[in-house]
TrEMBL record:
This is GNAT family N-acetyltransferase. The keyword Acyltransferase applies. Pfam families: Acetyltransf_1. Residues 11-162 form the N-acetyltransferase domain. It comes from Salinadaptatus halalkaliphilus. Keywords: Acyltransferase, Transferase. It comes from the Archaea. CDD domains: NAT_SF. The lineage of its organism: Archaea, Methanobacteriati, Methanobacteriota, Stenosarchaea group, Halobacteria. PANTHER family: ACETYLTRANSFERASE (PTHR43877:SF1), AMINOALKYLPHOSPHONATE N-ACETYLTRANSFERASE-RELATED-RELATED (PTHR43877). One of its GO terms (molecular function) is acyltransferase activity, transferring groups other than amino-acyl groups.
Amino acid sequence: MQTHTDSEGEIRLRTATPADGEAIGTLFTNSPDEGAVSFAPRFEYDPYEVYAGLRPETTGFVAETDDGRLVGVGFVSNTKARFDGEVRPSALLNALAVHPDFRNRGLAKRIVERRIAHAREQLGEDCVVFANIQHGNDPSEAVAAWWADSLAAEFVMYPAPPIPAAPSTDVDVHDASAEERVAAVDRSNNFYAETDVYRPYTVDGLTSRLADSPIDEPLHRYVVATVDDEVVAGVFASEMHNVMSLVVDSLPPELEDADALPPAIPESKELRMTMLSDYWYAPGHEAAARALWNHLRANPGGANRIMLNYDPRGRVGEVLDLEDGVGEMTLSVGVTGGSIRDEPIAPLF
């Protein structure tokens, strides 16, 4: 493995390696994010393997003191996604953390800068770099305002609790077969045709993505709804609860003093999530879209929240009749090297 380093004062940046797993986990545990509701991850498996294996072509960078202590980390994942109507080489910045004792020193900016440089080394100077920034996380928003050309595009992570059972329906919901994935790829791409931030599927690419997993069992599923054996709705599901959870570290005073937590937060204050992205349905099959949603909530596996990534301006939220004010999180897409049109987007998780 080629390792790149740079240093400034007492802290140097270098490429993360598998040997950093335990230290990365300790860093995340001790460095909850700074959103209005603060979370810290709890890992079921080696944190380096989780982040490096969650998305294809992922590289991590760590910030290390002279005595070998890890005090910052961030990952970057190469992909192709649509920006301003054109599919372009792109890099998603993710999983940034800086230890509280080392914040306000410009370290987060250095880690961002190193990841952007890496993306351009790998993908070319004209690549697009982007990140999902949670509203209310003032430090992350401040860093994004520094590197991003735009923070205008927004989407929602919608938390739905499990339900006891799905309403009876003639729609069949199941994991897609190889043959069904061919139809799902075509119909998902049609549903999101010309939609920015969407990563167009190929059959081989979807098959490869489903096989990617940081653990010995599948992490991703492609779930479809069929009517008379025709694929009429589908979604990409990542069962993150199998590798990690998010534990509430702190709440704002109004929630600490409230009689009940918002629906987004379980009583245990530990989010075990299945993440949904690229949700689509065929014209005239709104009922199948709702059947798919209800099936996923009624069969959550080990998850206690089903998290749907979607743009409220698009068609998905309306057909699923999603309520406002349930603790949904709003995020902005920070982007440099490209632009996002002022139209509904397809958030890339």
